[in-house]
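Protein modeling request. Please complete all fields; requests missing the sequence field cannot be processed.
Requester role: graduate student
Desired output: 3D structure, C-alpha cell encoding
Chains: 1
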Amino acid sequence: MRVARKRRNMGDTQVTTNLSGTAISRTVIALCLLAATVAIMSGVVLVSNGRRGISASSLVPTARKSPQASNSTIPLNQKFLLNANRPAPSGPKAEQLKKQGMKVAKQEARLPPPPAGPGIPVQGVLDIRQAPFSQTSFEVSNEWTGSDSAITSGLITIYAGIQITNAATMAQGFGGVRVYTTPSLNDVGQYLSNQKSPLKIVSVSGNLVNLISGTGVQLTFNMASMSFSDT
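Delivered output (231 residues):
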C-alpha cells in the first residue's frame, strides 16, 4: 500500500513538472511570435515608405537655408542693385586691388604685338632666315620688310646674308642682299658688297639700309641706286 501511494505521488509530481514546462514553452513561443510580428510590420512600413520616396534622412529635420545663402534665385536686376549698394573697398584691401590691377596692366604691356592678318606681312627688321629661295645659293642672316617708292608702290623685303658659291661644300662668297617685292615675291635682284662675311641688317632710314658685316664693318645699302657704300 505504501509503495503504491509513493509511486502515485511521484507520478503526480512528474505530471505537475511536465505541465509547468509546457506552460513555459508556450509562453516563450508566444513571445517569439510577437517579436517576429513586430519585425515584419516594421519591414512593411519601411518598404512602403521607400516606395513613396521617403528616406530615413528625409525624416530627420534639417535646418532651413537662409535666403542669403544662395543668390541663384535672385533676379538679375536685384543682384545689380545689391552689388551697386555695396561700399567700395578701402584701406589695405583697396591698396591690394590697386596693385593687382597695375600688375595686370604691366603684363599686358609686355605682350608681343598681335600677328598681322592674312596676306599682311609683318614690317620691320626680323630675325628670320626663311626666304623664297634656296639657302644653298644665298644664306640669310635676317630680313627687313617695308615700303620703298623707288622700287615699287607696295612693300619690299630685303634679305641680308652671304652668297653661296658652291652648294655642295657651302663655300661662301661675298656678303650682300637679295630684294623681293612683297607679298607677290617678285625677284628684284641680288646685290653683293666687297665684304667676304655675312651681312646683317641693323636698321633702315628712308632709302638707306644700315648693315654690319661678320667682321664688324658697317655698310649702307641705298635702295634708290641699289648700291653699297662704307659708312
